[in-house]
Amino acid sequence: SQKIYILAIESSCDDTSAAVLCNDVVLSNVVASQKIHELYGGVVPELASRAHQQNIVPVIDQALKQAKVKKEDLQAIAFTRGPGLMGSLLVGTSFAKSLALALDIPLIDVNHMQAHILAHFIKEQEYPVPEFPFLALTISGGHTQIVKVTDYFDMEVIGETIDDAVGEAFDKSAKILGLPYPGGPLIDKYAQHGDPKAFPFPKPKVKELNFSFSGLKTAILYFIQKEVDQNPSFIEEHLHDICASIQYTIVNILVDKLKKAVKHTGIKSIAIGGGVSANSAIRKALKEGEQKYGWQTFIPKFEYTTDNAAMIGIVGYLKYLQQDFSDISIVAKARIKI
Ligand code: KG4
Ligand code: ZN
Q: EC annotation (predicted)?
């Protein structure tokens, strides 16, 4: 069968990434993360786009080198068109367009949110690919969605956050505790040795399959302020229990909505994506769902859950098969539906 080599570029937020795929197999997946934002406790858009400009050429060079593929062997260039930060998207988009022009090969625009979901179709993962239809839960610092996936390019958002993303809920809670950015992985780490029921936090009442996390953040802030007023070392003394309680509340919110989504759609296959899928409590809860509710769950390799170009490449390949190419006049789009 034919071998299609695709170079994929992802630059929607604060990671510059390039990948080379041969059909649905990933040959390389290079990610340059931007450390600079740690100093500011969050992603600074202007700094992100400047860092993309510095990183993009070396990252692409490295991806080609690792894959042992020459530019001349590429059949298409896939890139993230959106959603994301405009300045960041522009770097990847302009680069992809000029490279496709220079090499005289097709250009393929990719929707970042579709890519988080279609990452499950990258070959060589430890488990089988999900069968249609399935539910996708995309959870990261920028997104929180439940998507009904009927086919590769037939997706419907059936629930989403009305304020903060779940990763933000983790990061903002961590900030209240004085932990460095991004604090999500640290909450996960400290929670391992804590009591998840030590401090009950309220669960938001949000309609249907939607999420809300800003109330939780405020509840945590007031709770911590009140406790620290009485005992200045409250956070240090109870860090593990606080983190376990925060994590328990967030995971409960996600699982409740998943249960609702399964009931509503009758679909029991659940695939997760986005950086927060690394969270150990979420992974555990999904596995428990298999026993308790008869779910079938799909959790990708860590490198394909956080922002990466391999997931852009698999969408590029699926679109290539349909000869679904973009016009060279295409522009980046900060807000774009799935
Ligand atoms: O997908 P990602 O790398 O970037 C985007 O936001 O698109 O996701 C990053 C988010 C951050 O909010 C980070 O704190 C969170 O994922 N995260 C975690 C864990 N690992 C990463 N949150 C909770 N537990 C983790 N183990
Ligand atoms: Zn993402």
A: 2.3.1.234
